[in-house]
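Give me structure tokens for this 272-residue protein.
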Amino acid sequence: MYLFNSEVVSNQKLSQNIYRLRLKAAKDFCRAAAPGKFVMLGTVDGLLDPLLRRPFGICRWGSDWFEVVIKVVGKGSCQLSNLAKGVLVAVHGPLGNGYPNAELESEQKSLFLVAGGMGIASIASQLFFALDRKQSLVGTFLLYGAANISELILLDELTAASSSGLQIQTITDDGSSSRQGFVTQLLIHELQTRPQSRVFACGPEPMLKSVQKILQETGCDGYLSLENRMACGFGVCLGCVQTVLSETSETGMETAKVCTRGPVFPAQQVVF
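Here you go.
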């Protein structure tokens, strides 16, 4: 992992309160990036307010840049979302463990990528990784849910991936995308016809709980990217711990640091 100051290359407004920030990075950083990993970002203004950096999934990267998607929810994210081209940002990363190798096994399992809300930033990293390397996405499905149609971001770029075989379904809480409900409803329907599938999911905890239950009921293989609050990003503060199953603990459970053991965990290991 690397600790450095990075220059803002561009800041694109994606919706009313969601922005995409592209930042410069060294080639070593970009080679270490992988789908599902994250960075801790902070402003470089000398005021130490807010003191702590904020975690963001690495959404996409090239040979000397990377991108994050920021939703304004508080002071830290507001500061970062307002940064102009050329401003410096404090970066720590890439951090954590991401998704396992998603190449399909010999029996050609389908791969379902389930994104809820801002979980699309993490899920999209898997898709952009494949697209940028010209990998086939045949048998890959993106199921994407959000509160409303304005928060369904990155769809223009991801829809372009349909030529590589990607199939996309969207759903919103208010029905503004023409389909109303939760993204887990889409997953249930799809797994009924494709029971031998693998699932990667990222989103709010209630969604992940539902995905875990669906996987248990269908017997499908799956991984969950958790969105626990983080303060340090490298295992010191213990602010992001999550209870997981353990074969070595007397109780059968232990607490894991999401920032270092995760944020991606096998679905069956997480204890909500």
